[in-house]
Amino acid sequence: MDNIRTAGIVIIGDEVLSSKTVDTNSAFFAKYCFELGVELKRIEIIADDEAEIVEAVTRMSSKYDFVVTSGGIGPTHDDITYPSIAKAFGNDLVYHDTTLERMKKLSTRAINWDQPSDHPEVIARKRMALFPTPSEVVFPSEKLWVPIVIAGGNVHILPGIPRLFTGLLSEYRSHIVDKIDPAMKQTRILVATQMPESAISQFLGDLQKRVDDKGVKIGSYPKGIGMGVMVSLLGRDVPFLESLVPEVEKELDGKRV
């Protein structure tokens, strides 16, 4: 993985699609990318289905620089992310010895590793160290046995448990920051107004046309019924963004927040 400019994330899990689990990982990843200066282009939620995973991962890997998957790497029968991604890239599945060693040492869910190797519990636990190979295995946190497995050069396979997902990505920041152009980082300026969207739509549309060539994106977001609108100015040229604020405040009878 060379320079990182774009990203995509695939949330994998029937439990999310069935509303049993609320996805928070994509929101964390969106903020993570914004703070790094990486443009998040796509968020997808898909089922625990091999064909769905293969299609989504293959497509995103070819389109975006930095791809993350969340979920489906546990010990049960429906945790099929590792084998599905191995299939996507034509990889074998091989036990990763270092991960197995860390699992035995650091796992909070202790099991009897002296049981026969064909014991169901041992087999289930070891499945979590059966990775697409070849791949890159990175341990961002010394406190966690779970690694980030990088398949296909840019697909980063992470657990779905939010504590692990956020912890691993936070520690992984130092591994990728040098691959991100600081000039790509965006700034967001917010202006609040009590005017309804219908009253400001013409001005915002005209403003967007004027600033297109500067790479600025204008957005409007209602805060709730009768609570006004938040207008967003998003771009990389901070002095230019600042120059727009007085005009926007005046036209919207608003105030920067």
From TrEMBL:
InterPro entries: MoaB/Mog-like_dom_sf, MoaB/Mog_dom. Residues 8-179 form the MoaB/Mog domain. Pfam families: MoCF_biosynth (PF00994). SUPFAM superfamilies: Molybdenum cofactor biosynthesis proteins. One of its GO terms (molecular function) is FAD diphosphatase activity. GO terms for biological process: flavin-containing compound metabolic process. This is MoaB/Mog domain-containing protein. It comes from Protomyces lactucae-debilis.
